[in-house]
Write a structure and sequence with these properties.
Helix content is 44%, strand content 12%. The protein is an alpha/beta fold. β4 (107-108), α5 (117-125) and β5 form a beta-alpha-beta unit. The chain starts with a strand and ends in a 5-residue tail after the last helix.
């Protein structure tokens, strides 16, 4: 059976909370979409409601070939908010995304991978059926008890910006350990970042674009099958792994 991977993209302002600019959407996103189209990879994009309001045409363009999920309304710590406020903001984001892409999102990723039981309760109430807010390399409350299907993030985006002599062996190891391997990325990483934390700025811009293409091309060369998170979640549900 071939290895499986999900290429996920968090669509937000540039390197939040450090910058309030949107160069990643304006400059990086078109190049990322072009790369995925050339490689024949369908991805899952988690977008904020604010981004949909600012760039509805660009988000609609994403939805033509890829899955669009929710990344909250603003890029903020939801786990610091009470249930009623979390629900209000998630409902607002969900409605904005649905209006933009003419389809209700079914998957969610919390900004900063920070959420809690109130987040999961709100998501279930809003009709979501899978969540990708928990990284395997972090700690936090799991959503399984809420009834949501959990697809954990397994590969932070900074790894994809490392030299290929480092990143390719890490990715190959991940493919052996995780099914699917979930890669995470941001459009702003394809734009040279300045005045942000070092791990958000190293090897961004054209270097990141070249290194990402090399990783994805190598994965395709060795037979990796890329799927959307919605496809993975439906398979898990059909196999009764989550009841």
């Amino acid at each position: 059976m071939p290895s499986e991977a999900v290429f996920s993209v968090d669509v937000e302002q540039d390197a939040p909370p450090y910058l309030k600019t949107w160069r990643g959407i304006e400059e990086g996103l078109p190049r990322l979409l072009k790369m995925l189209d050339e490689l024949g990879i369908r991805a899952t994009f988690f977008v904020t409601g604010e981004c949909c309001e600012r760039f509805p045409d660009k988000i609609a363009e994403i939805a033509r070939n890829h899955e669009v999920g929710c990344h909250g309304y603003l890029h903020e710590r939801l786990d610091l908010l009470p249930f009623d406020e979390q629900f209000r903001r998630l409902k607002l984001a969900t409605e904005i995304i649905e209006k933009t892409i003419e389809k209700r999102p079914v998957g969610f990723r919390s900004p900063n991978f920070r959420c809690n039981k109130h987040t999961y309760r709100a998501l279930v109430k809003l009709g979501y059926f899978y969540d990708s807010s928990v990284p395997v390399y972090g700690l936090g409350q799991r959503p399984e008890t809420s009834g949501l299907i959990e697809i954990m993030n397994t590969m932070p985006s900074s790894i994809l910006r490392l030299p290929s002599v480092v990143s390719l062996p890490i990715v190959q190891l991940g493919l052996r350990v995780f099914r699917p391997l979930v890669l995470d990325f941001h459009p702003w990483e394809l734009v040279e970042m300045k005045n942000v934390r070092w791990d958000c700025r190293f090897a961004t811009g054209k270097v990141a674009e070249a290194r990402l293409r090399k990783v994805l091309t190598n994965m395709l060369r060795i037979g990796v099958k890329f799927r959307t998170m919605e496809e993975v979640a439906k398979e898990l549900r059909n196999r009764n792994i989550y009841k």
